[in-house]
Amino acid sequence: MWVLIYPAARFLVPPPRLPLTLTRVQLTVVQKFCLAAYKIIPREIHEVINADGWRTFDLLVITDMDNDSKMESENWKWRAITRKGKLTLAADNTTVKVDWVEGSDHELTSGLNYKGRAMELSDLSEYNGHLLSPDDKTGLLYDIKDDKAIPWVFLNSGPGNTTKGMKVEWLTIKDNLLYAGGHGSVKSENWTDVFSRIRWAAGYPAPGYLTHEAVQWSDKLQRWLFLPRKASLTPYVESEDETKGANILIRGNVELTKFLTVSIGGAEVKHPDRGFSAFDFIPGTEDRLIVALKSKEVEGSDPESYITVFDIDGVVLLEDQKLEGNYKFEGIYFV
Known about the structure:
CATH superfamily: Apyrase
Number of domains: 1
Number of strands: 21
CATH architecture: 6 Propeller
Low-confidence stretches: 5-37
Organism: Ancylostoma ceylanicum
Pfam family, one: Apyrase
Distance between the termini: 28 Å
Structural class: mainly beta
Family: Belongs to the apyrase family.
Mean pLDDT: 86
CATH topology: Neuraminidase
Order of helices and strands: EHEEEEEEEEEEEHEEHEEEEEEE
Binding site for Ca(2+): 122-123, 169, 213, 277, 330
Radius of gyration: 19 Å
CATH class: Mainly Beta
Protein name: Apyrase
């Protein structure tokens, strides 16, 4: 399931009501309306060019700590943690290093919850001047501003007639529209077929499965990119799913009808207990280099997060590097 979010200027001119099922023609009309009606604030990325030609970019990551989001010290308050980092890329784009800013961890808190769950923030994206992060429990899309999480939009799990929030796992921008999507298990007329085609193209037909938490659209490549978190040739079994971590990158055309799958770091899955949770394109690389987060969640063990860098052909530049602390980081973004 996915939804389209209009620019912040939506308060001035109400957007057209979207039908439950969007055909290709209807989607094109909506895109043209938004492009004509609004001017989108471009994304800003801080970059430092060093004397040796290496470039340094600012990184921000954010947590989804599931039940551990509940603050024990305060009643009816939940938290997510942000952490700042620096990614430095060699002039020839072949070497990369990531350093985290000591003491930069910051708590974002909220009292808004759904059945005692909240602030499980699953991605980061800047849209029209807003740094946004979705809570996959409440359905709230937060605007991260001045070290605060401000509720911005409520995303409903259905066509506007349910009380449950949408389980948003990824955000991306295409043609000035913000796409908010789930992991592929939610039935939706437009994307059920898409997820099925992706599974077949990647070699995981039913009853096998892929789960998606990391999806981006690339204007430069004119491609959709999917980094599945889990990949299995067998039906879903909760206890076995912990070790179904995927190591594939799937690239799809604009129409999402043709796909190319590449293995990351070779065909063998070196760490099947780790799966992709988010990624961003490294600036200035024509979207050919990717920095990604992986999460490890195993029953009886503390959660772990890792960062890695590779190109769109699957060549790894930075092997999995563990983030300090037992946090599950699920959003990454250049700021």
